[in-house]
């Protein structure tokens, strides 16, 4: 068994997914099957084969450093779940000091 | 002939001649949508007022003497993964339900510049992850050939809309086959352009090194006209190719395979392939030979590892890309009751806002990228990607194009694979190599499978930037088969 339920709970936490117990069980079984299937890539003897991260042989792409039109604050905030003034309003980020 | 049965090229000419108007054509398609979309469920959003306003704008531009392109006034169904500032954009996810983007995708902007009229936004698998539209948060679309079957995916709303004559053209995106597979199972043309040939700016990202916008159409020429209208270099997408490309429209008008070297991929055959699909595929190969092509068998041994490599690379990229859905800047926010931290709100929102397949892929990608597993999974998959590109390079030294069935089976039943992710992934078996290598590939209809009477697709693959070549071959196949059938394959579909 390549993946345990505890590992799936860890992956869910890293992925910022608050999953219930039932979901964790369900996903653990499915991910186990999927990981066994994709592990076939390890059959390929590829010691000295370079990795490809991208189909195009691009390195750095530059553009002129010019000011261009962009969204206004109002436009950028238009889809926000909560806003205040010219800012996104978010739940607390830091733990309160004890 | 009714306006909704005409090709995009015909509609463009008819509108340009003044015999009809963009408004009339748009209205005819809106009427068709009103009549059949209750069954087909191709669209997530239709807004006749906005559509007719666009159409009036095009008619006014023409009346003012503006020089307009061949698709001016032609309506289009637009996949709901491209941002549109006048229509909500959701990627078929609850996490974006009702979101109105503040900007247009480059593809959207170019459709508008070409004078095309957007009929609405089409259904898809959530964030383009799937092969059936069953992963849409808003319910699946149906295959117009058989309403109990899937229309393919992820661009399944787009394929359903065009096959049901709700639109002459549609946009799609292809990350692992998401244009070619839905086109194949609905009897349409579906094209994955060379990666970088069409802009990803404003396309909601799934796997950035693979995502490619492309056309779905009822004819090869229509697909080429649409691809030409929205393609070309875009400074807003740093992976967009800044080089001249051969004319695909000219190629689509000049179908010819005389003397062409065609390679049949040996690995795409055998177990898991439906006999009726293989039978139609072999006939298509014989047809190419009868038209003067030289057919040889080619081996691409690493293609058998493309599927597992893809299901490591694409989930890895998605686990990073979908981090942007953080419940802070746009979209859904759940559980913000003043007591919870930002991290807790984020995790609650994402658990509620994402569907099962998206969650699976994010966790799979997080796993593949974890320290301790990276080399064995993501690292190996990237090496396989190199080997697949080398297989293509070696094959294209011997032949001009490669061919295979587009999909191993015809359209499957709704629900048949919905809770079996690995079975669902097999739908992309033949399409994935071209995503990993970035080359051009098209699916054209090549007949109906004997078992179920459903469409079969022929996939034609060409090297990077040789998009014109697949159009030339596709047009030759289309024309020869239309002669044999006495019309297009889609004419055999049942009336809705």
From TrEMBL, chain A:
<comment type="similarity">
    <text>Belongs to the GatC family.</text>
</comment>
<dbReference type="InterPro" id="IPR036113">
    <property type="entry name" value="Asp/Glu-ADT_sf_sub_c"/>
</dbReference>
<comment type="subunit">
    <text>Heterotrimer of A, B and C subunits.</text>
</comment>
<keyword id="KW-0648">Protein biosynthesis</keyword>
<keyword id="KW-0547">Nucleotide-binding</keyword>
<dbReference type="InterPro" id="IPR003837">
    <property type="entry name" value="GatC"/>
</dbReference>
<dbReference type="Pfam" id="PF02686">
    <property type="entry name" value="GatC"/>
</dbReference>
<comment type="function">
    <text>Allows the formation of correctly charged Asn-tRNA(Asn) or Gln-tRNA(Gln) through the transamidation of misacylated Asp-tRNA(Asn) or Glu-tRNA(Gln) in organisms which lack either or both of asparaginyl-tRNA or glutaminyl-tRNA synthetases. The reaction takes place in the presence of glutamine and ATP through an activated phospho-Asp-tRNA(Asn) or phospho-Glu-tRNA(Gln).</text>
</comment>
<keyword id="KW-0067">ATP-binding</keyword>
<keyword id="KW-0436">Ligase</keyword>
<protein>
    <recommendedName>
        <fullName>Aspartyl/glutamyl-tRNA(Asn/Gln) amidotransferase subunit C</fullName>
        <ecNumber>6.3.5.-</ecNumber>
    </recommendedName>
</protein>
TrEMBL record, chain B:
<dbReference type="InterPro" id="IPR020556">
    <property type="entry name" value="Amidase_CS"/>
</dbReference>
<feature type="active site" description="Charge relay system">
    <location>
        <position position="79"/>
    </location>
</feature>
<comment type="function">
    <text>Allows the formation of correctly charged Gln-tRNA(Gln) through the transamidation of misacylated Glu-tRNA(Gln) in organisms which lack glutaminyl-tRNA synthetase. The reaction takes place in the presence of glutamine and ATP through an activated gamma-phospho-Glu-tRNA(Gln).</text>
</comment>
<keyword id="KW-0648">Protein biosynthesis</keyword>
<keyword id="KW-0547">Nucleotide-binding</keyword>
<protein>
    <recommendedName>
        <fullName>Glutamyl-tRNA(Gln) amidotransferase subunit A</fullName>
        <ecNumber>6.3.5.7</ecNumber>
    </recommendedName>
</protein>
<dbReference type="Pfam" id="PF01425">
    <property type="entry name" value="Amidase"/>
</dbReference>
<dbReference type="InterPro" id="IPR036928">
    <property type="entry name" value="AS_sf"/>
</dbReference>
<dbReference type="InterPro" id="IPR023631">
    <property type="entry name" value="Amidase_dom"/>
</dbReference>
<keyword id="KW-0067">ATP-binding</keyword>
<dbReference type="InterPro" id="IPR000120">
    <property type="entry name" value="Amidase"/>
</dbReference>
<comment type="similarity">
    <text>Belongs to the amidase family. GatA subfamily.</text>
</comment>
<feature type="domain" description="Amidase">
    <location>
        <begin position="24"/>
        <end position="470"/>
    </location>
</feature>
<dbReference type="InterPro" id="IPR004412">
    <property type="entry name" value="GatA"/>
</dbReference>
<dbReference type="GO" id="GO:0050567">
    <property type="term" value="F:glutaminyl-tRNA synthase (glutamine-hydrolyzing) activity"/>
</dbReference>
<feature type="active site" description="Charge relay system">
    <location>
        <position position="154"/>
    </location>
</feature>
<comment type="subunit">
    <text>Heterotrimer of A, B and C subunits.</text>
</comment>
<keyword id="KW-0436">Ligase</keyword>
<feature type="active site" description="Acyl-ester intermediate">
    <location>
        <position position="178"/>
    </location>
</feature>
């Amino acid at each position: 068994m390549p993946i345990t339920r505890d590992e799936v709970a860890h992956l869910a936490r890293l992925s910022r997914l608050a999953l219930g117990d039932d979901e964790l069980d369900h996903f653990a079984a499915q991910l186990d099957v999927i990981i066994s299937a994709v592990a076939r890539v390890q059959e390929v003897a590829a010691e000295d084969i370079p990795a490809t991260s991208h189909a195009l042989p691009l390195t750095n792409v530059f553009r002129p450093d010019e000011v261009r039109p962009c969204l206004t604050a109002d436009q950028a905030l238009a889809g926000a779940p909560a806003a205040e003034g010219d800012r996104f309003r978010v739940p607390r980020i830091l733990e309160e000091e004890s | 002939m009714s306006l909704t049965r005409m090709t995009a090229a015909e509609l463009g000419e008819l509108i340009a001649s003044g015999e009809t108007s963009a408004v009339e054509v748009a209205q005819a398609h809106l009427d068709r949508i009103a009549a059949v979309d209750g069954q087909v469920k191709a669209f997530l959003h239709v807004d006749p007022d906005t559509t007719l306003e666009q159409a009036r704008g095009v008619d006014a531009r023409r009346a003012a003497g503006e020089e307009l392109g061949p698709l001016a006034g032609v309506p289009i169904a637009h996949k709901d993964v491209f941002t549109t500032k006048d229509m909500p954009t959701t990627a078929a996810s609850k996490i974006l339900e009702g979101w109105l983007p503040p900007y247009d995708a480059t593809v959207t902007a170019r459709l508008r510049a070409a004078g095309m009229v957007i009929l609405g936004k089409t259904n898809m698998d959530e964030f383009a992850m799937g092969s059936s539209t069953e992963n849409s948060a808003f319910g699946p679309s149906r295959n117009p050939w058989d309403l109990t079957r899937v229309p393919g995916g992820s661009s399944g709303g787009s394929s359903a809309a065009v096959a049901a004559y709700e639109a002459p053209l549609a946009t799609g995106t292809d990350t692992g086959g998401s244009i070619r597979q839905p086109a194949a199972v609905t009897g349409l043309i579906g094209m994955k352009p060379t990666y970088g040939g069409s802009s990803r700016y404003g396309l909601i990202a799934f796997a950035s090194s693979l995502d490619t916008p492309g056309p779905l159409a009822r004819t090869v020429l229509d697909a080429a006209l649409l691809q030409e209208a929205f393609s070309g270099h875009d400074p807003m997408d740093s992976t967009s190719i800044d080089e001249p490309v051969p004319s695909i429209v000219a190629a689509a008008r000049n179908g010819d395979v005389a003397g062409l070297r065609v390679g049949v991929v040996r690995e795409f055959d055998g177990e898991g392939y439906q006999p009726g699909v293989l039978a139609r595929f072999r006939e298509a190969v014989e047809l190419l030979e009868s038209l003067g092509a030289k057919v040889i068998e080619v081996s691409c041994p690493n293609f058998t590892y493309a599927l597992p490599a893809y299901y490591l690379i694409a989930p890895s990229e998605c686990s990073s890309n979908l981090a942007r859905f953080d419940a802070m800047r746009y979209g859904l926010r759940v559980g913000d009751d003043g007591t919870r931290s930002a991290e807790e709100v984020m995790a609650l929102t994402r658990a509620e806002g994402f569907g099962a397949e998206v969650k699976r892929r994010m966790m799979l990608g997080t796993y593949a990228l974890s320290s301790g597993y990276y080399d064995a999974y993501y690292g190996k998959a990237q090496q396989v990607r190199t080997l697949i590109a080398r297989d293509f390079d070696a094959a294209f030294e011997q032949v001009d194009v490669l061919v295979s069935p587009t999909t191993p089976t015809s359209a499957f039943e709704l629900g048949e694979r919905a809770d079996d992710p690995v079975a669902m992934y097999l739908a992309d078996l033949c399409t994935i190599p071209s995503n990993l290598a970035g080359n051009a590939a098209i699916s054209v209809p090549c007949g109906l499978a004997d078992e179920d009477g459903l469409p079969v697709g022929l996939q034609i693959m060409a090297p990077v930037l040789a998009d014109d070549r697949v159009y030339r071959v596709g047009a030759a196949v289309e024309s020869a088969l239309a002669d044999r059938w006495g019309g297009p394959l889609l004419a055999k579909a049942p009336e809705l």
